[in-house]
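Student: I would love a firmer grasp of how sequence relates to backbone shape in proteins. Thank you; the sequence and its tokens follow:
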Amino acid sequence: MSVAPGTSGRPPAPASPAPGSFAAFVKLARVKFLFQSMMVTGFGVTLAVHATGAFSLPWYLLTLAFAWSTHLMTHFCNEYFDLEADRANPRPTAWTGGSRVLVDGLLTPTTSIGAAFVLLFTSLALILAMPTLHARLLAGALTALAWFYTAPPLRLNYHALGEASCAAVLYGMGPLLAAVLQPGGLGALLLWCTGFVAALQVLRCLVMNLADIEGDTLVGKATLAGMLGPRRLTHVYTAGQALLYAGVLVLALTQVLPPVVAAAQLLVAPVAGLVVRGLRTDAMSDTRRSDAVTFWASMQLPLTTCATMLALLADLLLAGHPAPALWNAIAGGTALLFTVWLYRAVAAARRPAHHEDTGTAVAPPPPERHAPTKPRPLPGEPVREGREAR
């Protein structure tokens, strides 16, 4: 669990799962990131509902199953191919540097790549069930980009293309596919809303890769964050956030964006401010503070999609054309689940460790640092490079 801003240290680390256990497998899967693909799916469906007023439950369920299958596939794939960089990473955070399950030897790399292939075949089966050729082509391209994020021969995140490809997959193609699979046409807001969150995701990925820059450099991994360096990355992130939110204001004033949608998107802007402040005060060089920066950089995206989704539904209601009751219920339930999870994450991060005798807060000792070592391949297994899923 990451540390929220304003805390003096990270909470005590939970006990490590037993080697070879199901708990270790769940930790390897990094299921906490699935909230992003859940919100992305709801975001895309809401854009379609806002345009047409129609909703199909079966296609929503298929889209969500595909989103989760592909997202988990990416996690397992990246854990395997990013193992060398994860082992070389001296300061992983709760949100970067991999799950540490393979690094700690709790499961074998073969388990991870095996799960990735199972989920790949699951995603392909779901693609075949999609109704139109253009939906299947879009889903196929999404799956390919997700797989080759770290897998050879493309290994996009090793050639300064990871940030853009991750944004295109999760926040570009993801919402578009969810909208395409719903009945009716696509609305005018689709281009702006997906472009907005995809651009935010590029900036977020820069921060996440910045957290792993030491390990990436040691294994020769050339991310865009590594090429920019901390100082230029901070300038790019700050300017990018300012330009995007200025765009929201301009589109609202020109009545391209409904006022309630613009207000919802601007409501999340202070989260970007927290990240900018952390970057400008060199928080990424501090193990405890870097958790807060990566946490809020990650939360900006699901917060934005959740707020936009609710605002689109509110806009329909204000116009006298409410969305179908079933989708209102599903969207509201999705937002509630995410809100409860976010509250618990922040509350746990703000809970300090207390001394048993005095009752005063004490900072836990910093995590042990290990000299990066070159990983040993399994017998008959080639040495792989790589890092965790975004």
